## 1
Amino acid sequence: MTAQTDTQGSVTTVYKVSGMSCGHCEGSVSGEISQLPGVTSVKAVASTGEVTVVSAATLDDETVRAAVDEAGFELVGQA
């Protein structure tokens, strides 16, 4: 799946992240990604390893990877 743009111009991208196993993990990943410029919403789900990010524009994968690394997890790629 690639990033999708909605009618308001927001971009929704779903990423796969390995290593998340609990709510604290979800919070760590969400907290780091939410600090990226243009990000308006982040929802991490440990049970699926998916992180849904809504942003004003398409995010650079390496920027997202750095944020996930900072949280202590590994970005596998886009779901």
## 2
Amino acid sequence: MVVIQGVEVMLEYHLDDKNIDFYRALVPLTLRRQGIAEKSVRTGLAWAKTEGLNISTRCSYVVNFLR
């Protein structure tokens, strides 16, 4: 979770051993269309790759970055 302009932005995930499931990217309406979701997803995926985790997702937004 990150707080931007007093509002919480989250990339939610479940971590189980070496498997990570990014299941939800949450950016409030007031902060959308500013690239915040993209930055949080790219940061989360980069961290997961650095840690050698097996990445999966149930989030349609995150799927776009795994193609």
## 3
Amino acid sequence: MDRAKTALSEGSIGSDFLQLDVREAPPGGLADWLARQLRAAIADGRLPVGGRLPASRVLAAELRVSRGVVTEAYQRLIDDGHAAGRGRVGTVVVAAPVLPPDPSPDRLFPEVITALPGVEVFDAMRAAPARIDLTPGVPDLTAFPRAAWLRAERAVLDELEPSHFGYGDPRGAPSMRLAVSRWLARNRGIRVDPGEIIMVAGVAQALTLVGEVLRQHGLAEIAVEDPSSLGARQHLHHCGLATPPVPVDDDGLLVSELHAPAVLLTPAHQFPMGVVLGGERRRELMRWVAEGGIVVEDDYDAEHRYDRAPVPAVRSMVPEVCYTGSVSKLLAPALRVGWLLAPPRFRDDLVAAKRFADLGNPVLAQLVLARLMETGELERQLRVVRARHRRRRDAMIRAVAAELPGAVVHGAAAGLHLTVTFDAEVDDVAVAAAALAEGVKVQPLSWHRQRPGRPGLVLGYAARTATEIAEGVAELGRLVRDSRP
């Protein structure tokens, strides 16, 4: 007999704790229902961060369900990063879910997802309310290492000289550039002198600085992969650069089709298709650089890998490459901290561009990050979130197989997103727009194409729980089925 029915037959109506009532649980779904109730209570503050959950045997007795139901629900919160087992202390709330913004009654949200997105589209997407956000590019924000950050910040402030609060080197704090050089050597195989590193406000600023300098050097265009990041292209267009598309196949960019003087690449995990730039293509690219070509390498999420060996950065083999990365996918985009490796050809101009942009990044955040890098705390954080992201990636693959049969999954071996493609009958813009109307955010693959290609969706999984992923993909499956003629 179903556990919920058993509880009802015994006369149980619930618990004083959060006014839980097992009669509200769907048949056969007690643990899932309980996990949702607890997650909602954490999100709205009824269960504060630092608060302790009831002992599993106590709550099970109050609800008159088996203890296994409660322990399974608690384990789901632990897997999601919202709770942690603390031995004798019990299960403690450690992080609140990130909720979408509430729709303001006096604010109208115009149609966000259209076939021709404007420059404001990503701001509009972030502001649009949704119950399940599967847009790509965001790590698990609940996993931000608050305790480690606070410890590092206290240690930094205890040691900080008054001079550090003044204007500094526009390239960034020397200790941060040293820490980044060591981080890149350990994790990306890149040997670089700290003097070649410019700290920037994320990859977005790096692309803007590079775009400005390329224009100063007389370039009018920079080739991009097709498909490629719509956001990156928007930054380059803002700098006055054209972005001619170059096809991508299973081995990455078709270097033989590269005719522009410069190219922007995501070789370790191509966005959005997830392929790796193959060995022969890398050799072709090296020959192209030797003939004067300019490569800008966006190494946006190479640290997150699950089913494959590490892929070396192109910059580790070609010192002339402009290389950029950030902690947006490692910790949080809100930190706005990244780095740009400036080859000799453009170094002085890039430093000048950074100087006139903002005089340099905020120093305190740099010093804290440097300490996290140097103490090994950032590697520990990466191991924690990599395991969690893998579980969520697996949940999305299972959901796609169940709800989107016939869809082809791309790029699942690494990163924080995967892409699914459909046959030509599916209008991915229409599906994404309908999904947003139903409270599920995704990006249509056609946004990231400049040339015709198979329709699809780009789906982020890192910031959502397995349950949310399953619910969101199920909604997408229904919409795709309804969209077919």
## 4
Amino acid sequence: MDSKNGFTITNRDHVLRAWQNSTELVRDYQAYAHEIEKDNKELAKLFSEFAEDEAVHAAKLLDLLRGYEK
């Protein structure tokens, strides 16, 4: 745990923020892939792969987050 500015940031808080960031990256990478699909298929494919990889991270973080809710 970390205490800053008079409040405590817990491990659950860190996991929640990481999950939020990860899901945002999934959306961003998907949007990039869709936007450039016609211009550069190779780069669009790379962004699609990034989205898939990040989705795996998001899923693992969500499992951890659910564990904190029990």
